[in-house]
Structures are given as structure tokens and as C-alpha cells.
TrEMBL record:
Source species: Hymenobacter negativus
Protein name: 3-isopropylmalate dehydrogenase
Role this protein plays: Catalyzes the oxidation of 3-carboxy-2-hydroxy-4-methylpentanoate (3-isopropylmalate) to 3-carboxy-4-methyl-2-oxopentanoate. The product decarboxylates to 4-methyl-2 oxopentanoate.
Main location: cytoplasm
Binding positions (Mg(2+)): 222, 246, 250
PANTHER family reported for this sequence: 3-ISOPROPYLMALATE DEHYDROGENASE
Site (Important for catalysis): 143, 190
Stated family: Belongs to the isocitrate and isopropylmalate dehydrogenases family. LeuB type 1 subfamily.
Associated pathway: Amino-acid biosynthesis; L-leucine biosynthesis; L-leucine from 3-methyl-2-oxobutanoate: step 3/4
Length: 372
């Protein structure tokens, strides 16, 4: 029996809906294994601006610092997306949180599930067997460099800066991950143009001597974007800077079949944070069509981080069960779609009592009454 404190930041748009399902799944895990997960929600993003004027209130940051792990839904609102002049923005809350917690490595695994191959617009033989992980640097680069407008108001700038230290700490993680996988590391950069990319190459090339079992490739990001679609199976571990990682991971979701499937872990010096790679998908808010699996798999990564490996494996098994039985939201099941809540209920139900396979849409309320 373990007792853990998990700070939950549901955020905006579909964030609260998908987060609710992941919390339910964690409750099912706690019930099944006799653990105690103390889960409390805090505002971050547009909802926090509405409530306090601040996208990351002190109370939220303090609660994250005091927690064993953080679970995040998504933030962002069209009100701000459509107003480039807004000075206070939901995304500032997320960026500041990453910086304050020292979350310098964002780990994004991408898997092509056999059962979902027909749902990808890409040819099945190209994507079958894809299994890669992107290590995206998360607290440096162009996201965090000096930004502003020129004095004459006619221009704007975003500086991209990286230090050797910032590169080395995430590169070590990526090398270690590659060593334990298929021993292949690809550095994605733009070294033909950017000085920061040349520093990345210099450091990674030097570090490669410490990991002789790992084969290192260097790929320019424009080519990488094409290779991702052309032959994704060639990738094992991808290491890249903040903005390139943001872009190629959304692209990679096409291989899996939906943005609603891709989880992530943000790790670093302090407490770790777990979040789907997708955003607040405002068009879907309240419609029950958002896929909660990316957030549920983020909860599985959270359990692994807490060294609750058996528990995480059961969550993954339950997700596989949902995939194999077509218990999926409408972007993946167009004929008889399930709602966000039904997918969450199915997975939680399976975890709470996987010997009981009698779940169906009608009995779920009864079956789950003990855990939701
Ligand atoms: N980490 C985060 O909180 C995060 C990440 C990305 C974007 N955002 C914010 O989200 C807002 C919307 O951005 P966007 O529309 O560019 O990206 P988005 O990820 O919210 O949605 C892009 C598309 O992906 C698909 N999608 C996303 N989540 C899905 C899910 N759970 N199930 C099924 N399909 C899903 C939909 O087709 C959607 O149109 C913006 O304000 C942006 O800043 C936040
Ligand atoms: C919302 C935005 C700041 C964020 C990012 O660019 O890092 C998002 O796209 C992500 O992938 O988590
Ligand atoms: Mg993104």
C-alpha cells in the first residue's frame, strides 16, 4: 500500500473531461491495489486567468511543488488564440510551470497499434511496427529566449539560445533511453543554418563516445519531417530542441491514428508532470467526443515514474482492451462511437475488476458504482 499526493491541473477546453477519466482510472488503480492517491485539482491556464488574472496562481505552483506528481489536461482558449495582442495568455502558465519545476525533458512515445493501422491516413506497411520516443528539450530555446518588438514597432524577435549544460542533461537521458532500446539515437536539428543546432551537434558528437553501443544519426529537421511520414520505423530515440520537438510530435500522431492517443512525461530536477501532447481542442469541449486515452496513458507514465510498474502495466492492458474491442471515441470509431466518459468508464472498470468482463454501455453505472 502506498500513499501519494497527485496535483491535478484540468485546464481548459477538453482538459477537464479527459482529466476526469484519467483520475477515475487512477482511483480504480488505488482500489485494486489498496493504495491511497490524494488527488486535488488546481486552476491553470485560461480558467485561472478568469478566476485570478494569473495563468499560474501561486497556490497552484505551490501545490505542484508539494506533490509526488502532477497530472495535466490541457490549456488554451480561442479567446486568446484569436487575440494576438493579449498580454496575459494561458500558455504562459504552462511555460512558467515547466520552467519553475525544472522540467527540461519532455518524453513523447509514439506507437503504431496494429488494431488502429487502418485509421492512419498513411499506408499500413509503412507504419506497422513503429515504436519511437521523442526526447524534446522543454525549458530552453526559442520558447524562452528574449522576445519583443523592435523600437520602431516595425519588427519582432524571438531569440533562440542554448547552453552546453542544457543540451547535455537531456542528451544523457536520450542516450540512456536508446541504450536500453534499439540503440539508435537521431539528433534532429537545423545545423546547416542555426548556430544553436551546431552546438547541439558538437555536444552530442562528443557525448557519443560515452555510449559506444548507441549509433548516432544527425538529421536536419526539414528532412526529418519528411522521413517521419515516409519511413517512421527507422526511428528509435529522437533527441531534439524545444520547438522542433513540438512540431514533429504532432506530426507523429498521424502514425498512431489520433492526437488523442499520445501521452507524455515532463521530467527534470523537481516533481514530474504528465500530460497528453494535444491541446484543449476547444471545438470538442463538452461534446463527449474527446479521446481520453492520451491522458490515461499519461497517468500510466505517472505510475511508472512512481515505480508502480505493475499498476501501470494494468492500465496499459486495459487501454489495449479498449482499443481491441473498439471502445473508442468517434475519430477512431466512426460507426458506433463511445463517449469520452464511456471510454474512461470501460478502462476504469476493467482495472477495478479485470476478472469481470461483463461491461457494456448499459451496466457500466452499476459496475462502476464502487469507484466513481
Ligand atoms: N499542452 C497543452 O496544454 C497544449 C498543447 C497544444 C495546444 N494547446 C492549446 O490548445 C488550443 C487549441 O490548439 P490546437 O487546436 O492547435 O491543437 P489541439 O491539440 O487542441 O487540437 C488539434 C486537433 O487534434 C485533434 N485532437 C486533439 N485532441 C484530441 C483528443 N483528445 N481526441 C481526439 N482528437 C483530438 C483534433 O482533431 C483537433 O482539431 C490552443 O489554445 C493551444 O495553445 C495546449
Ligand atoms: C501550448 C503550448 C505552449 C505547448 C508547447 O508548444 O509546448 C503545446 O503545444 C505542447 O505541445 O505542449
Ligand atoms: Mg504542441
Amino acid at each position: 500500500m502506498v500513499s501519494k499526493k497527485i496535483a491535478v491541473l484540468p485546464g481548459d477546453g477538453i482538459g477537464p473531461e479527459v482529466c476526469r477519466q484519467a483520475v477515475k482510472v487512477l482511483e480504480a488503480v488505488a482500489t485494486r491495489f489498496g493504495h491511497r492517491f490524494e488527488m486535488q485539482s488546481y486552476p491553470m491556464g485560461a480558467c485561472a486567468i478568469d478566476a485570478t488574472g494569473n495563468p499560474l496562481p501561486d497556490e497552484t505552483l505551490d501545490a505542484c511543488r508539494a506533490a509526488d506528481a502532477v497530472l495535466l489536461g490541457a490549456i488554451g482558449d480561442p479567446k486568446y488564440d484569436n487575440d494576438p495582442s493579449a498580454k496575459v495568455r494561458p500558455e504562459q502558465g504552462l511555460l512558467r510551470l515547466r520552467k519553475e519545476l525544472g522540467l527540461f525533458a519532455n518524453i513523447r512515445p509514439i506507437t503504431a497499434y496494429d488494431i488502429l493501422l487502418p485509421h492512419s491516413p498513411l499506408k499500413q506497411d509503412r507504419i506497422q511496427g513503429t515504436d519511437m520516443v521523442i526526447f524534446r528539450e522543454l525549458t530552453g530555446g526559442i520558447y524562452f529566449g528574449a522576445k519583443g518588438r523592435t523600437d520602431d514597432g516595425e519588427g519582432a524577435y524571438d531569440h533562440c539560445v542554448y547552453s552546453r549544460h542544457e543540451i547535455r542533461r537531456i542528451a544523457h537521458m536520450a542516450f540512456q533511453s536508446a541504450a536500453g532500446r534499439r540503440q539508435r539515437l537521431t539528433l534532429v536539428d537545423k545545423a546547416n543554418v542555426l548556430e544553436t543546432s551546431r552546438l547541439w551537434r558538437e555536444e552530442v558528437r562528443e557525448m557519443a563516445h560515452q555510449y559506444p553501443e548507441v549509433t548516432v544519426d544527425y538529421l536536419l529537421v526539414d528532412n526529418a519531417a519528411m522521413q517521419m511520414i515516409l519511413n517512421p520505423k527507422q526511428f528509435d530515440v529522437i533527441l531534439t530542441e524545444n520547438m522542433f520537438g513540438d512540431i514533429i510530435s504532432d506530426e507523429a500522431s498521424v502514425i498512431a491514428g489520433s492526437m488523442g492517443l499520445l501521452p507524455s512525461a515532463s521530467v527534470g530536477a523537481e516533481v514530474a508532470l504528465f500530460e497528453p501532447i494535444h491541446g484543449s481542442y476547444p471545438q470538442a469541449k463538452g461534446k463527449g467526443i474527446a479521446n481520453p486515452i492520451a491522458t490515461i496513458l499519461s497517468a500510466a507514465m505517472l505510475l511508472e515514474h512512481l515505480e508502480l510498474n505493475e499498476e501501470a502495466a494494468l492500465v496499459r492492458e486495459a487501454v489495449d482492451e479498449a482499443l481491441n474491442n473498439g471502445v473508442l471515441t468517434k475519430e477512431l470509431n466512426t460507426t458506433a462511437p463511445y463517449t469520452t466518459e464511456e471510454v474512461g468508464n470501460y478502462i476504469a472498470f476493467w482495472i477495478a475488476d479485470s476478472s469481470e468482463k461483463q461491461w457494456n454501455k448499459n451496466n457500466v453505472e452499476i459496475g462502476l458504482s464502487t469507484i466513481i
